[in-house]
Design goal:
Layout lengths: L5 E5 L5 H11 L4 E5 L3 H7 L11 H10 L8 E4 L2 H7 L2 E4 L19 H13 L4 E5 L7 H12 L6 E5 L9 H6 L4 E5 L3 H14 L8 E6 H31 L4 H9 L20 H14 L3 H28 L8 E5 L14 H11 L3 E5 L5 H12 L1 H7 E3 L3 H5 L4 E4 L4 H5 L15 H4 L5 H6 L42
Parallel strand pairs: 1-2, 1-4, 2-3, 4-5, 5-6, 7-8, 9-10, 9-12, 10-11
Helix pairs in contact: 1-3, 5-6, 9-11, 9-12, 11-12, 12-13, 14-15
The structure holds 1,4-dihydronicotinamide adenine dinucleotide (NAI).
């Protein structure tokens, strides 16, 4: 029976860091070293200012990393990639797999160059047997590429067992998801050696996950595809409900009532059925496009176009939201102040990758609006840097003002766009307590222009009635708010207020 005593994780990002913190905290006898090429990232993991924000992460990292009188420290962060690989008997590959930007499949295919580079480095360094675990989300069949690399580059006497163990955590609830996963999938080649390696990894999880939730007998291709399939189906539900929201706006139906009624059907269920301004984050779009590309290369054009529509609806929904706001402001946004509450792609994370807020900001910048932006977990500097990198630093210096609070952003705003459903925008729990009360923030008080009244009725302004006017789906994606006072037209969430 193989046992794991030393784990290395290549990639100290949103997946590698939290996953290994939980693995280490639950397996005191196992040493876990998370390595990355980025020195600043590793320095941050070794400090009290972690590089990412997740509820509960700080505590769990400090518990395992710092140790105590009662417990040894067994979680390490380092840039010594080779040293950690050398010592490990199990290696998670947890590097980024973005969409390819150049060459064959650009704009759709997953770029696995970082996975490949990590595998090559492991193959070059390893002098003892290793279990290699694909943790990154990869195209179906990547394990074969890894096996080829190990065979071609690795020492002949070293055994490499490749497993697929996709990560299903959602940002914003990563620690809760890791502590209580719905399932752990471990795909192997199915040979006696492969199954032995899968069971060794299963034992690591069994330190806190009930055995019946650990599936260590899955075929490796199924395991790779299962992760893509799960993300595609989650994204598809969001696009489905968002497409229905447009029908609601054109009729007398109410999307919230539709979500509720449809979700009561046991075959459908209530999750991921809330309308929003579209999904964001680093995974959904890239994973759907990855599946689209796979279908294309497998000569399944109908399958490819079916899944491509999920992304198309999402882009359309984001665009619709911006157009509604522009129309509500008499189609002249130039010089008007728009408050943007939230830059992260959902609450409880500081992650802004593929955030709908950024797409919205791009549209507002092209209209030359003045943007006042606040997000509780995206710092002043990061707002300027990230938007500057995306839209040009000159434009950002001219049109963007990061703000210290939601209240500061809303002052004198002609419209307030709630882009992330942070609780503090819903519950009036701001700290430090500003002089202005959220309940006083009706648009008429904020605005200097009469068009602002219309902005209010489009859903983009918080107000006394707005406590419930923002909703989120189960991954916490941001949702457009319902007009709080417009009871005569309950379905106008994104509707044209001038009608
Ligand atoms: P990330 O970009 O936050 O982290 C990846 C890290 O890998 C970076 O810090 C990078 O410097 C490092 N890296 C790249 N090549 C390296 C190498 N050769 N040696 C050492 N370090 C290297 O990415 P994230 O979000 O953690 O995602 C990782 C994978 O997990 C992706 O495939 C993603 O699709 C998947 N995933 C992501 C989830 C999420 O919520 N972010 C959830 C589930 C899966």
């Amino acid at each position: 029976v193989r046992t794991v005593k030393n784990i290395c994780c290549v990639g100290a990002g949103y997946v590698g860091g939290p996953t290994c913190a939980v693995v280490a905290s639950k397996n005191e006898d196992v040493d876990v070293t998370v390595v990355d090429l980025s020195q600043p990232r590793i320095d941050a993991w070794n400090s009290s200012q972690l590089p990412i924000y997740e509820p509960g992460l700080q505590e769990i990292v400090e518990f395992a990393r710092d140790g105590s009188d009662q417990r040894r420290s067994n979680l390490h962060f380092s840039t010594d990639v080779r040293g950690a690989i050398q010592k490990a008997d199990l290696i998670f590959i947890s590097v980024n797999t973005p969409t390819k930007t150049v060459g064959v499949g650009a704009g759709r295919a997953a770029d696995i160059k970082y996975v490949e580079a990590a595998a090559r480095e492991i193959a070059e360094v390893a002098t003892s047997d290793k279990i290699i675990v694909e943790k990154s989300t990869v195209p179906c069949g990547t394990s074969e590429i890894l096996r080829d690399i190990f065979e071609a580059v690795g020492e002949p006497h070293v055994r490499f067992d490749v497993l697929s163990n996709p990560e299903f955590l959602a940002e914003g609830t990563a620690i809760a998801d890791l502590l209580s996963p719905d399932r752990i999938l471990i795909g192997s080649e199915g040979t006696p050696e492969g199954l032995e390696a899968a069971n060794a990894l299963a034992d690591v999880y069994a330190a806190w996950v009930p055995r019946e939730r650990i599936r260590a007998d899955v075929n490796i291709w199924s395991s790779e595809l299962a992760k893509l399939a799960a993300n595609c189906m989650l994204a598809q539900r969001i696009s489905s409900i968002n497409s229905l929201s447009a029908i609601c706006e054109a009729t007398g139906a109410n999307i919230k009532e539709i979500s509720h009624s449809v979700g009561l059907d046991k075959r459908i269920g209530p999750n991921f059925l809330k309308a929003s301004i579209g999904f964001g984050g680093s995974c959904f779009k890239k994973d759907v496009l990855n599946l689209v590309y796979m279908a294309e290369t497998l000569h399944l054009p109908e399958v490819a176009s079916y899944w491509k529509a999920v992304v198309d609806i999402n882009e359309w929904q984001k665009d619709r939201f911006a157009k509604h706001i522009i129309r509500a402001l008499n189609s002249t946004v130039e010089g008007k102040r728009i408050a943007i509450l939230g830059l992260a792609y959902k609450k409880n994370t500081g992650d802004t990758r593929e955030s709908p807020a950024i797409a919205f900001i791009g549209q507002m910048l092209s209209e030359r609006a003045q943007l006042a932006i606040y997000d509780p977990k995206v710092s002043y500097d990061r707002i300027l840097r990230e938007l500057g990198d995306e839209f040009g630093h000159e434009a950002v210096a001219k049109y963007v003002k990061p703000c210290e609070s939601a209240y500061a952003a809303c002052e004198r705003a002609s419209a307030v766009a709630i882009m992330t459903e942070w609780d503090e925008f819903k519950t009036d729990q701001l700290t430090p307590r500003p002089t202005l009360d959220l309940r006083d923030l009706t648009v008429s008080k904020l605005s200097t222009t009469p068009v602002a009244k219309r902005a209010d009725s489009t859903s983009s302004a918080p107000s006394s009635q707005s406590e419930d006017n923002m909703s989120s789906d189960e991954e916490g994606r941001q949702c457009p708010s319902t007009p709080p006072t417009n009871t005569s037209s309950p379905t106008t969430e994104l509707s044209d207020p001038t009608k």
